[in-house]
Write a structure and sequence with these properties.
Mean pLDDT: 77
Radius of gyration: 59 Å
Number of strands: 4
Strand order of the largest sheet: 1-4
Low-confidence stretches: 205-219, 251-261
Number of helices: 6
Distance between the termini: 80 Å
Helix content: over 70%
């Protein structure tokens, strides 16, 4: 079934509705992007940039001081034990041997304290590395969240822009169609006016009830005029045929006129 052609008024009404939809999309357009993680990212980056290089002072290491105190106590205890044992052997009198042996026992524990320093250095460096890695992971996580948020915003902007472009094209199409329909309607009205001027209304008598009544005046439609033209054309053609036939008959009768005796 063919679709009914819409009038200019209908098309203009649709164009106005399409324009409203376009304005709604324009009002819903996302604003400028605002980061929710920018401040945290900047702070972490500044912290990483300003982070000093690794340094280690064994004497300032609390863990090393604990070890030092422990080894000193153990060294003193060993020295006292050595002196006591030596005194028992000499009948309670001190000797240079006992003093030397006690000093050696004490120094042995102190040297053990020095042996632990490299392990403490390695532990301190591992902590430094772990702290830096933790900051970098935290920065990476925030940057990932920032990237996702920006991507979602960008997708909203693109979707809105695409919808606006489609709505704008539809509004222009309806506006152009309405304008063309208006032009066509005006041209039709002008043609009808000229036609009515050339072919004025026909007066026809109306009879009935045993007498005549007042005539009624009606405007011919285009189809009525065409019918009348066809009827006149048929009459003219019929008359022309009749005339040709008569002429042929006359000519034939002249040719075959009987010869008088």
């Amino acid at each position: 079934m063919a679709e009914t052609k819409k009038t200019a008024e209908q098309l203009y009404a649709q164009a106005q509705e399409a324009q409203k939809q376009l304005q709604q999309l324009q009002a819903q357009q996302p604003g400028a992007y605002e980061s929710s993680y920018g401040a945290q990212i900047d702070a972490l980056m500044a912290q990483l940039d300003s982070r000093p290089g690794f340094t280690y002072d064994v004497n300032g290491d609390p863990l090393y001081r604990q070890y030092a105190e422990q080894y000193q106590r153990q060294g003193k205890a060993a020295m006292e034990d050595t002196l006591g044992a030596a005194a028992g052997l000499t009948g309670g009198y001190g000797s240079s041997y006992a003093t030397t042996a006690a000093s050696q026992a004490y120094q042995q524990y102190l040297s053990g304290m020095q042996d632990v320093a490299p392990a403490l250095y390695a532990a301190a460096y591992a902590r430094y590395q772990d702290e830096g890695t933790a900051l970098e992971k935290q920065l990476e996580r925030l940057q990932g969240l920032e990237s996702n948020a920006y991507g979602a915003w960008q997708a909203q902007v693109q979707a809105n822009q695409a919808a606006q472009a489609q709505a704008l094209d539809y509004w222009r199409y309806l506006n152009d169609a309405a304008y063309q329909a208006q032009q066509d309607e005006q041209a039709q009205a002008n043609w009808q006016q000229e036609f009515n001027a050339k072919y004025p209304p026909v007066t026809a008598a109306v009879s009935g009830g045993g007498g005549s009544r007042k005539s009624s005046t009606t405007k011919d439609t285009v189809s009525d005029v065409l019918d009348r033209i066809n009827q006149v054309t048929d009459k003219v053609q019929s008359a022309a045929k009749t005339t040709v036939t008569k002429r042929k008959t006359q000519q034939t009768s002249k040719l075959f006129r009987p010869v008088s005796k």
